[in-house]
Known about the structure:
The structure is a homotetramer. By secondary structure, the first copy, chain A, is of the alpha/beta class.
Amino acid sequence: xxNKLYDFTIKTLGERKIPTPHTPGxxxxxxxxxxxxxxxxxxxxxxxxxxxxxxxxxxxxxEMIYFDPAKVKAAIVTCGGLCPGINDVxxxxxxxxxYLYGVKNIVGxxxxxxxxxxxxxHDVMELTPEFIKDIHTLGGSILASSRGGQDIEAxxxxxCRMNIDILFCIGGxxxxxxxxxxxxxxxxxxxxxxxxxxPKTIDNDLNLIDKTFGFDTAIxxxxxxxxxxxxxxxxxxxxxxxxxxxxxxxxxxxVSAALAQNDVNFVLIPEIPFDLEGEKGxxxxxxxxxxxxxxxxxxxxxxxxxxxxxxxxxxxxxASGNVRLKDIGIFLKNKISEYFRxxxxxxxxxxxxxxxxxxxxxANACDSLYCAIxxxxxxxxxxxxxxxxxxxxxxxxxxxxxxxxVTLRKKVDPNGNMWMRALEATGQPPSMKN
Amino acid sequence: xxNKLYDFTIKTLGERKIPTPHTPGxxxxxxxxxxxxxxxxxxxxxxxxxxxxxxxxxxxxxEMIYFDPAKVKAAIVTCGGLCPGINDVxxxxxxxxxYLYGVKNIVGxxxxxxxxxxxxxHDVMELTPEFIKDIHTLGGSILASSRGGQDIEAxxxxxCRMNIDILFCIGGxxxxxxxxxxxxxxxxxxxxxxxxxxPKTIDNDLNLIDKTFGFDTAIxxxxxxxxxxxxxxxxxxxxxxxxxxxxxxxxxxxVSAALAQNDVNFVLIPEIPFDLEGEKGxxxxxxxxxxxxxxxxxxxxxxxxxxxxxxxxxxxxxASGNVRLKDIGIFLKNKISEYFRxxxxxxxxxxxxxxxxxxxxxANACDSLYCAIxxxxxxxxxxxxxxxxxxxxxxxxxxxxxxxxVTLRKKVDPNGNMWMRALEATGQPPSMKN
Amino acid sequence: xxNKLYDFTIKTLGERKIPTPHTPGxxxxxxxxxxxxxxxxxxxxxxxxxxxxxxxxxxxxxEMIYFDPAKVKAAIVTCGGLCPGINDVxxxxxxxxxYLYGVKNIVGxxxxxxxxxxxxxHDVMELTPEFIKDIHTLGGSILASSRGGQDIEAxxxxxCRMNIDILFCIGGxxxxxxxxxxxxxxxxxxxxxxxxxxPKTIDNDLNLIDKTFGFDTAIxxxxxxxxxxxxxxxxxxxxxxxxxxxxxxxxxxxVSAALAQNDVNFVLIPEIPFDLEGEKGxxxxxxxxxxxxxxxxxxxxxxxxxxxxxxxxxxxxxASGNVRLKDIGIFLKNKISEYFRxxxxxxxxxxxxxxxxxxxxxANACDSLYCAIxxxxxxxxxxxxxxxxxxxxxxxxxxxxxxxxVTLRKKVDPNGNMWMRALEATGQPPSMKN
Amino acid sequence: xxNKLYDFTIKTLGERKIPTPHTPGxxxxxxxxxxxxxxxxxxxxxxxxxxxxxxxxxxxxxEMIYFDPAKVKAAIVTCGGLCPGINDVxxxxxxxxxYLYGVKNIVGxxxxxxxxxxxxxHDVMELTPEFIKDIHTLGGSILASSRGGQDIEAxxxxxCRMNIDILFCIGGxxxxxxxxxxxxxxxxxxxxxxxxxxPKTIDNDLNLIDKTFGFDTAIxxxxxxxxxxxxxxxxxxxxxxxxxxxxxxxxxxxVSAALAQNDVNFVLIPEIPFDLEGEKGxxxxxxxxxxxxxxxxxxxxxxxxxxxxxxxxxxxxxASGNVRLKDIGIFLKNKISEYFRxxxxxxxxxxxxxxxxxxxxxANACDSLYCAIxxxxxxxxxxxxxxxxxxxxxxxxxxxxxxxxVTLRKKVDPNGNMWMRALEATGQPPSMKN
Lengths: 434, 434, 434, 434
């Protein structure tokens, strides 16, 4: 059981000697845990050294805390791409620190990890309840963000210089790897700094986490775009609405949106390879659909069909630390046009690429609620002196997970329920491989 | 283990001899089950006769089905109060029956169980994909609904006369009790009719079900109203925004909405009694809040503070099978006005009662997705000949539950996480009892 | 032509000697005017002393201005009930003053005219671009408001003491009467203070003004409520959706909303009296409608049918300077219930009173645009030293009007186009008087 | 005065002998007219032969009608690009014909003028109140549309063969030219067929018409996208949000949206030429903006800067009867990237092209209301036997205009109020020409 992915132990900076100042009077004990595996068949196959089934620590306010609210200084940093709900998390963390624990010294680091590095010249922001009270009505991050890592030693130097005691990191898997490296460097230097991650990926593809914030909003927004594509496809003879959506490594958004608004006739995702040509290929299937129903809506995740693209001109221009993807949207648009030109069938194709519109809206109610709770639990964990961990939702329960366990990507299982439901909703062929 | 609430056995009408016609190629076995209890401490305390921990059947398409798609006739009925998502469930059931299983004979029963009783003279509706394709853009139920039960024998007579093989019942706990009685009468008569429930309660207070459809939309809409109340309260000197929201027996909507839009300063729910008068009472707490911040927002669930109301004139006029509630909204409005008049403090109170506006909107994306999936699984269960059961979500997994296990109400635990988070978000006194 | 209502002369504080600092290079001359009357039949019936048809001054930037941007101090005050768009106007005025004219000294007066009176102890707010940049995303008024007038002399004393040079008043007809009185007092004292009104009435019933801001948003929001009422009415046997909407003295919102969402079957407004009882009365008409179509939606403006209400218990509790209205919504609800109880016809009535929800949302795009432009023109007028005037839209052109000309109420003409269209859209009897 | 553009005479098919069946009891006389020109300076410069100022016929129900409701057959056709509100107009026309005049024979022509031509094989649609009652909740056109004209004689043959008496044409300037040709052919053949246009252009650039339907919705939607672009631009170091919006020949949408949501820093439209390079050019201005504020939002109408594009690869792929435009969005994106790469300044550019999303949403309240009224007046005009005309809004009054007068495009006046306001709102240099 030395596998990092199965080690659910949460580290604490030290003994907790200060009674929590907040009044509600309900506390969660460190020993409260839920099972990792809930399938009847094999729930007790994986065990800890103590012979008990693998289990995960439940989040919540601890009766005793580690940091003195009057002296502690907290910082928040947001990294990676924008995602609905970041401001909600920031707001919740500040509100919770200020009003529940009485922490007054809270700063925001600007432009991601860049904000720690002096050469960029970014000032920090004072975060007060007055300043942040309405930020949940705005999309994006009031702290702004940046992509890419920074030198970990310089980062930790900065954390020391700024006397930060708790660092809340909001970001994706890259950021979480950064947060882990920071935690390790802090441990190495024997510092009493807590690092708490609040995982952010609009794609909802983080290992072990039921749902990442922003995903629900992304689906809401995607659905609106699908409705538009549907309207466009039905508005002209042989209309095709082609929508490219987020999902570099996983098709969760595409599949969920296709299900929620079942006007989608083809959903294409990274996990399910397909052919373009041939009797079973996508283009032939599209032709058959058009012959039968005279319109079609296609939803493609940006990471789908990468193996099909050979034209280097379609390499994505949106640089980042991630692998560069080729633009499947433009590629499909061209291939479809070409195909129907060849078979002399007049079509009306409308191509829509709404990613920036989707990710930069304010969080919807569902995500607002989720972000508010994540912020509350993150603060409880930080004040208790926990470190190197993230807060998340697992089996409908808020839990603590070591950062290392969530850096893996969760895929859509080609043999699972979710993909099955998508096939049912779209009516597309179960396989478009020849 | 003879307790009905712990008996998770699902009944089937008979042997399944017909291969499922739908193509996706993924099937779920009846033996796939998840644990009922996932707390590490006591997960194996409750056991079945076989010595295994209690567990629940997982939903999904079965490889063999019971009904012949070419001959089967399905009916859908919607009962009780309106709730966002009913049309989405209807649409999903029809689409799934029609396109996945090839069932063409689908009818809608009008105005709830009334539609089965000849004396009301309601015609049935043919439900075709063409007819239902856009109904998810409309709130309410295209079948309409009614409250109150009907004579079970007459109902089953009607089911026989109409040759219905599968009955999908969408409704609340009353409806589910009705569905159970129907199932029992069907069993008594030895009929091969499947009864599948899709539980509906906007209050999200059904035992064992993670989340009922419409709840998420209700929160979204409630949040908008809270924002308005907040704007009103801040827009005038000593402004008070008082919002009455659904929640006859439980405060889930109120608590979740207060958390998601944390502009609420007092949330009052049925589970938490409070005093009006006295040093620790609500009115004094409100006065303190106003002195300090000059405005306040109060969110009250309709079932809160029933013990305080003695004036019989405030009995609710909205009749239904439920216990008549006294109108806590009007009552509080009067009591607050009276109190501040007495202490000669000028206030500006704005009272908002938005329940009908909230429950009659179309489902949002999150609920649309959930309804679509519930509809798919309900059809899989029905075609497999399961009966006397509901589909739902438990620990993030779609499952089958005997109807009898879900007719209990789930409350907000006064000592639980959720209420603790609400106290944190509102900053209200942990107790307003003297 | 000494009638105040036809005197369209705009006063200026004095000679304009300073070239406007703003660059766009387009200016409007004071002489640019549009006709008051555009009907071919009688356009030249009303003439000025100079023998020309009556005409109105066109708004816009003047080449020379009166106030020195470096020295001028501007103040903004918002009075009366909330209305969508107030924050948009504030934002536009501040942005325009700051960026276009270089005015840095801008303050906001809190809680309406109360903010001028020292005894209330309200501080002023510094209004900077940074502070106001996102306020259009919030409903209400960031300055807050209050109802009722204050002592004019004390008010002008305060204006002097604060060295205010330009006062922007956002408010309804009461506020405009106050602004006129302030202008007169200022003139009497020989002060060089400009008073510019931006008329606000959600009811869109200001004389001469094509459209007041907030009206479009109010209709958008009302439509949503009508949709809900429609869904409710169709969701139950013999369902009735009854919606009470703003409109104390005029039915513009009710009529426009009924037209835009033509699910309304009866629209009742102050301008059109109706009977309850009798063969031609409203209740009989409602009964006929229900018999024929089994559901009905009624939209009633709050000032409708006041002559019918004798029960003093229904006097409105929302105090203000306005005449106290009796609550037609509750009254109708009771009368309808009583009537159908008497004739033993079972109905399902749902009553909705959404006024506070409607008026406190942020402005929609249409109103945002309108408010942005009104703010721009108000600043141009103020900087040019105009006074005692309002900016508005007349025949699709932005114009200046003396305050005195707009304090009258515009009614829905019972013999006009608008009411005719409403009758067509609802299908209600042209008259419900016996 | 033989100029077609100033000839406001409306043709009628013949004498009106049938009393209008609709009850409201309010009628508009043919003689009711409003002035064409309302500027005081020159209102009487343009005169008719009769010596009166030019004037325009007011719309409304006539007391006597031409067509017998029991026998008349009406048809509706929708042509050109999608636009919010088409379904609202269809709905209003059908409701008005059916309920007000008692016309039962109403058909919809599918896929624009193609639907008249037998070789395309498109069936007509029966349009009943039941069928169309909820179509305003859907974007697009339930009749679908197509671009391009068809043979006029074949079209009129078809109209005859189908016994159509009134043809309602919903479309843009191309369609209106088609409608005029149809009217002429009908006149030539001496047929008693009325042709009524309801002008549609999302760009709001029709001569003489205050506002075309769909424009308001387009602005609402554009604003949302601008907000996203703003969030994106502020979310990353040196962020640029670049949005391409509709507007082939005019910048009305771009200018109005920039004003309504004044987060736009540069608005580029067809009417205002600009340079890219040079000290006064756009790129230098953008650089200055970024240096000063670190982010920028650019809104470009698709017809802007066409003279700058020489690369033929950027020719627009969306074919239609219109002149092919080169893609200014992609062009600017490339030029901006290139420029900052050259001066070694790191930027983060996000490009958004939302046109299909904007035009395919359902109409908002403002447009719904406008469409409802246009439909009502179109029916009044058609039933009165008027022909060769359109209904529209002029100086806030609903009027009749000969089709020939509205086929010209209305531009944004570079010396006018509107452009001045846009310059003020954006703060961009008044000229970006060297």
